[in-house]
Amino acid sequence: MPCTPLLYANLADSQLFQLVKKDDIKAFEELYNRYWSDLIDAAYRRLQSRQKAEDIIQDIFVSLYQKRHTLDITVSLKAYLYQALKFKVLNVFRDEFTRSSARKEIFLNEQCKNDSAAYCEARELNNRIGQVLSSLPDKCREAFLLSREQNLSNKDISLGMNISVSTVEKHIGKALRILRNNLRDYTWNA
After folding, report:
1. In which domain, by residue range, is 136 found?
2. Residue 159 sits in a domain of what CATH number?
3. Domain of 10: which CATH number?
4. Most CB within 10 Å of its CB: which of 81, 105, 128, 181?
5. Tens digits of per-residue pLDDT, 98-130?
6. Of the given ranges (55-64, 98-107, 163-172), which has the lowest mean pLDDT?
7. Which residues neighbour 181 within 8 Å (Cβ) at sequence distance 6 or greater?
């Protein structure tokens, strides 16, 4: 027997999710309304795009609803939703990095076809940089890419990643050291 709307608001997340598992759409709506705004804000801080933030949060809730019968949440629902958000945001960054790298690769391949040695060397360097970046720890890579590709300040990165500014600086410094060490033997013949 479904609850009245007032009763849904008084239920704990775990109780609501148990009702969702029993196909109670009102319980799902309560969870959705309870977390939608906070999740959008958190996604926007990281992505700086309202549309991307809304798309990600919509995907999270659609997935939650579709998997409701088989999903066993061992942490709090809030923790589950924020963990899902973290992975979705990382996927967006990875996809953007991949698309950016692919565009650069296509451009450089076209230039190499014109027998330009400098562009071929640039392509090789770009590939090596991509390999080094992909080997960085996740948080280190995320901070570095936000700094270099999104041109975000360390303060903005710290807010988006929910870490201190000094931690952001350490991640970026570590990424630069690793890049320098791995590209030390590379010589540019210009």
Report:
1. 115-183
2. 1.10.10.10
3. 1.10.1740.10
4. 81
5. 766 666 666 655 555 555 565 566 667 778 888
6. 98-107
7. none
